[in-house]
């Protein structure tokens, strides 16, 4: 259900209004009208959905062991819609009421455990924070692309974990005081976004380079390395150089083609591409050999 | 059969910390978890970690606040251990790189929290648990500790001597979710349960779907008493539509609560004339529900939490995560609007009875974190005391299991020592269905009759394989989702913030019927690959056992203390109830007994006082 078409109509109407208003006023009025329209549209849509009482899901199914699921297929589910329902809520409803073999990972339901990244209507999303009301129907739910499917919506995460582990994702400083180490607010702010990663794998799945180069560290792992490289508490020169060496290898930062697809899908709004670019600059600055 | 010195069940905060500590003692450690460690629910903790780090604060103040918060049901040796060890543990995780929020001078920030006499809640934004979890997992990776992720632990391999205190735990039985393999894991030195809370026994909870109380149920059936299970914390600020938690940090930073009449009811209706919104969680939850019940709520359901006056800068700096949660899960912009909130199940104060070294009454069996009851929190847990509990008692359990040098525990465990038995006549028989003719069917356990460790593990593996075969071979019956929904319904209706005798009896009857229904449970998914239908069916059985212990405790404790409110008993009765409720499985025929609370601390004896905020 797109709001695109009616929106342009509203615009056309405001275009024909008599002159005299300042450009600024017209823009403000235009925006207000659009906002109002969007809100009424949203409300109408919610009401409509409540009245229709169901949302149509098309869900990818596959099980290597079960005869009629060995050939991948899509199953249709019609789930009663309630206001505020997320894609995860709908999947849980379908499983608990229609087909208990429908399989997907999920746990916290609040976008922090990172279990339920899936490919919803053609894009990597965390199901628990994706409102059904924002999805066009039928809502197409598939496992994350570029990963092996274990069953239904569950993919094999081992490769993702291997790449995360490959950047030595742990604090290595041995030189610590008896109390806490000091860290400036600025430095904490600098690493803040990078520490938000929930390992959901959406970025890796969206990345064309990772799809073609299985050894590419990928956005999440490079971001993890960024988190340590930029942390002023780990300040030994040899350590910094060691971290850069891991990053500037053949399948490291230089592979990134700055397509921003990872940044676009990150459910935690981490500026992944920027972080990768910053590390490229660090590598150059440190005059390290690159491939 | 897999074999390790120490096996940690669960990969959340307590489990990771226990594994690191055991490895530091030289043990070969493995973590077995049904999730991947970074998916654990510790990651959802928001507020912070209480620790007396600063001048003007000291561990004795932290201990005093915790004892008062517990409504004098915490044990002094446990509380004092928490308060004494917390600062060192906080510095330890800081040394591991934990990205705490910082002051101008670069030191870690602390903020006020409910029930604290000093602002000692150390935090990392409003996502402290996420950072704690990831920081410790990083150290597990660094140390090369083996992790069996997505392995669901189905049961403990425990010997079957007559009395639990004579039994030993030799390992676990795991189910590889990805492949369906069922395998034994032998533990040479000990098994540590760090499996988290039982929130899925309720339908409005801040807990994850994975919080199904597996550890409690396994330990309980093996013979370890469940302690103080009636004390369930309902967090006062959860989002009405999902149960997503809005941190106490919002009130700590100055957020206010008001009702539909625009009254700041914590003060204006006299619930907490001094501390207002920052009174203890049980006090605030009851106040909110009272407002709603007396017609002053919004839509007869919730009250409002407002933080707009704190200003955008402060909110973004310290509570940014709250803005995202309110927006994503309730469609509310916390910078522009107040947030609707209501109480939701949040934390189980009770748990697997342990001493201050995490040891249970069964040799080689330990528990730490929410699933354990040391007891630190007594009748009510203070905000900011769960995370230090994870790291302090996780570390202690790990060290002790690995044979580390530690002082002997002061807290006694098991059905021995200074105990008395309950004489309440129960309206419905709790425990195993058909116990008179011996346990049978899918809930049967059957202990191992040998003391040889390998044989105990193998025999338990066999029992679990049979259980799974039975469940998988059935073609009809009831499904777990129906049983779980029925359980959540009766618990939420009858064993909630406000409790009445009739409701509690009703819940016991419902649980009895739910147990009987479970005898006919079946698994529809025929696959061995990632069969979550099977896993959830087994989890549901655990929830039934846990829910029953909560309800039993709630029925027999005829007083009002901390989070346990009884309509017919509106006072705290110290002369009779300064004691812990213990429910023993007793091979399927539960017994209830009591042990006095320990109020004698290292330097002083805590005198129960009226708890006002």
Describe this structure in words.
The complex is a heterodimer of chains A (291) and B (613). With 291 residues, chain A is of the alpha+beta class. Chain A folds into 3 domains: 4-14 and 23-47, no CATH class; 53-155, Roll (Ubiquitin-like (UB roll)), CATH 3.10.20.30; 158-285, Alpha-helical ferredoxin (Fumarate Reductase Iron-sulfur Protein, Chain B, domain 2). Chain A has helices at residues 4-15, 23-52, 87-97, 158-166, 185-192, 202-206, 208-212, 219-229, 237-247, 261-265, 272-285; strands at 55-61, 73-79, 117-120, 123-126, 139-142, 149-151, 154-155. Chain A has a 5-stranded mixed beta sheet. In chain A, helix 8 packs antiparallel against helix 9. The relative contact order of chain A is 0.10. Residues 1-20 of chain A have low confidence and may be disordered. The model of chain B has no long low-confidence stretch (mean pLDDT 95). In chain B, strands 1, 2, 6, 7, 8, 9 and 16 form a 7-stranded mixed beta sheet that branches. A 6-stranded mixed beta sheet of chain B has the order 17-15-10-21-22-18, with helices on one face. A 4-stranded antiparallel beta sheet of chain B has the order 11-14-13-12, covered by helices on one side. In chain B, helix 1 (13-24) runs parallel beside helix 4 and helix 3 packs across helix 10 (386-401). Chain B folds into 3 domains: 2-232 and 350-414, FAD/NAD(P)-binding domain (3-Layer(bba) Sandwich), CATH 3.50.50; 235-342, Flavocytochrome C3, Chain A, domain 1, CATH 3.90.700.10; 435-596, Up-down Bundle (Methane Monooxygenase Hydroxylase, Chain G, domain 1), CATH 1.20.58. The radius of gyration of chain B is 23 Å and the shape is globular. The chains are: A alpha+beta (291), B alpha/beta (613). The interface between A and B is large, with 58 and 65 residues.
Cα end-to-end separation of chain A: 48 Å
CATH level 1 name of the largest domain in chain A: Mainly Alpha
As for the number of domains of chain A, it is 3
The profile of the biggest β sheet of chain B is: 7 strands, mixed
- Biggest interface and which pair forms it? A-B, 58 and 65 residues
CATH topology annotation of the largest domain in chain A: Fumarate Reductase Iron-sulfur Protein, Chain B, domain 2
Shape of chain B: globular
User: Regions of chain A with pLDDT < 50 over 5+ consecutive residues?
Assistant: 1-20
Radius of gyration of chain A: 24 Å
At CATH's second level, what is the architecture of the largest domain in chain A? Orthogonal Bundle
Kindly estimate the percentage of residues of chain A that lie in beta strands according to DSSP: 5-15%
CATH architectural designation of the largest domain in chain B: 3-Layer(bba) Sandwich
Strand content of chain B: 15-25%
Q: Which structural class should the secondary elements of chain A be placed in?
A: alpha+beta
Strand ordering within the main sheet of chain A: 2-1-5-3-4
SS field, number of helical segments of chain A: 11
As an assembly, this protein is heterodimer
Helix content of chain B: 25-40%
Give the full name of the CATH homologous superfamily of the largest domain in chain A: Alpha-helical ferredoxin
């Amino acid at each position: 259900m797109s709001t695109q078409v009616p929106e342009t109509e509203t615009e056309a109407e405001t275009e024909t209004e008599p002159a005299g208003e300042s450009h600024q006023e017209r823009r403000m009025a235009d925006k207000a009208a659009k906002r109002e329209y969007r809100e009424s549209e949203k409300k109408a849509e919610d009401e409509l959905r409540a009245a229709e009482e169901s949302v149509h899901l098309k869900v990818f199914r596959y099980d290597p062991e079960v005869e009629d699921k060995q050939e991948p297929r899509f199953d249709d589910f019609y789930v009663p819609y309630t206001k505020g329902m997320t894609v995860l809520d709908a999947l849980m409803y379908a499983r608990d009421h229609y087909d208990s073999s429908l399989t997907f990972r999920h746990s916290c339901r609040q976008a922090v455990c990172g279990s339920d990244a899936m490919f919803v209507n053609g894009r990597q999303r965390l199901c628990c924070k994706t409102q059904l009301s924002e999805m066009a129907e039928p809502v197409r739910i598939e496992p994350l692309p570029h990963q092996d499917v274990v069953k239904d919506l569950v993919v094999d995460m081992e490769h993702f974990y291997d790449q995360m582990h490959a950047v030595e994702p742990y604090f290595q400083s041995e030189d610590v005081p008896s109390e806490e180490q000091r860290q400036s607010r600025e430095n904490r702010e600098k690493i803040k976004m990078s520490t938000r990663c929930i390992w959901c794998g959406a970025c890796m799945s969206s990345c064309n380079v990772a799809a073609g180069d299985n050894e590419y560290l990928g956005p999440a792992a490079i971001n993890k390395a960024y988190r340590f490289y930029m942390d002023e508490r780990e300040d030994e020169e040899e350590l910094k150089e060691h971290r850069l060496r891991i990053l500037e290898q053949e399948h490291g930062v230089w592979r990134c083609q700055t397509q921003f697809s990872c940044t676009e899908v990150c459910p935690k709004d981490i500026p992944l591409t920027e972080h990768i670019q910053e590390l490229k600059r660090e590598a150059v600055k440190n005059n390290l050999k690159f491939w | 059969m897999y074999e390790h010195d120490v096996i940690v069940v669960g990969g959340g905060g307590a489990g990771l910390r226990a594994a690191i500590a055991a490895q530091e003692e030289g043990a070969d450690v493995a973590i077995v978890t049904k999730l991947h460690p970074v998916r654990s629910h510790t990651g959802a903790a928001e507020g912070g970690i209480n620790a007396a780090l600063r001048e003007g604060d000291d561990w004795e103040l932290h201990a005093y606040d915790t004892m008062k918060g517990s409504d004098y049901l915490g044990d002094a040796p446990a509380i004092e251990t928490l308060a004494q060890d917390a600062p060192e543990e906080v510095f330890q995780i800081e040394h591991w790189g934990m990205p705490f929020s910082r002051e101008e001078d670069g030191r870690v920030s602390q903020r006020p929290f409910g029930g604290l006499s000093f602002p000692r809640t150390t935090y990392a934004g409003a996502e402290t648990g996420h950072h704690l979890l990831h920081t410790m997992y990083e150290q597990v990776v660094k140390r090369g500790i083996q992790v069996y992720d997505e392995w669901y632990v189905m049961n403990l391999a425990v010997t079957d001597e007559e009395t639990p205190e004579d039994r030993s735990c030799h390992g676990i039985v795991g189910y590889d979710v990805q492949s369906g393999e069922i395998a034994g894991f032998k533990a040479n030195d000990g098994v540590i349960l760090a499996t988290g809370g039982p929130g899925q026994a309720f339908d409005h909870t801040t807990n994850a779907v994975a919080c199904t109380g597996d550890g409690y149920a396994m330990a309980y059936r093996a013979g370890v008493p469940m302690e103080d299970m009636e004390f369930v914390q309902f967090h006062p600020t959860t989002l009405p539509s999902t149960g997503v938690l809005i941190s106490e940090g919002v009130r700590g930073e100055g957020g206010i609560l008001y009702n539909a009449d625009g009254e700041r009811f914590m003060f204006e209706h006299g619930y907490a004339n001094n501390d207002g919104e920052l009174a203890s969680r049980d006090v605030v939850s009851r106040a909110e529900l009272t407002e709603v019940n007396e017609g002053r709520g919004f839509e007869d359901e919730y009250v409002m939490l407002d933080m707009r006056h704190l200003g955008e800068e402060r909110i973004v700096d310290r509570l940014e995560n709250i803005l995202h949660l309110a927006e994503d899960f309730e469609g509310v912009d916390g910078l522009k609007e107040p947030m609707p909130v209501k109480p939701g199940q949040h934390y189980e104060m009770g748990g697997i009875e342990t001493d201050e070294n995490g040891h249970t009454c069964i040799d080689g069996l330990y528990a730490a974190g929410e699933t354990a009851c040391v007891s630190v929190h007594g009748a009510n847990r203070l905000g900011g005391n769960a995370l230090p509990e994870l790291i302090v008692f996780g570390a202690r359990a790990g060290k002790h299991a690995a044979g580390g040098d530690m002082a002997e525990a002061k807290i006694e465990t098991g059905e021995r020592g200074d105990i008395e038995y309950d004489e309440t006549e129960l309206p419905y028989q709790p425990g195993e269905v058909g116990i008179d003719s011996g346990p049978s069917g899918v809930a049967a356990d059957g202990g191992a009759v040998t003391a040889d460790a390998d044989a105990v593990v193998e025999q338990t593996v066999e029992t679990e394989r049979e259980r799974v075969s039975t469940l998988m071979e059935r073609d009809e019956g009831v499904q777990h989702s129906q049983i779980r929904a029925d359980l959540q319904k009766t618990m939420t209706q009858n064993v909630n913030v406000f409790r009445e005798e009739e409701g509690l009896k009703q819940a016991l009857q419902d649980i009895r019927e739910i147990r009987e229904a479970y005898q006919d449970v079946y698994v529809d998914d025929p696959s061995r690959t990632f069969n979550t239908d099977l896993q959830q069916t087994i989890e549901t059985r655990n929830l039934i056992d846990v829910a029953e212990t909560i309800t039993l405790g709630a029925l027999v404790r005829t007083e009002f203390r901390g989070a346990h409110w009884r309509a017919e008993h509106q006072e705290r009765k110290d002369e009779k109830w300064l004691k812990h409720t213990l429910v023993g499985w007793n091979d399927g025929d539960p017994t209830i007994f009591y042990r006095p609370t320990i109020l004698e601390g290292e330097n002083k004896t805590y005198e129960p006082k009226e708890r006002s905020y």
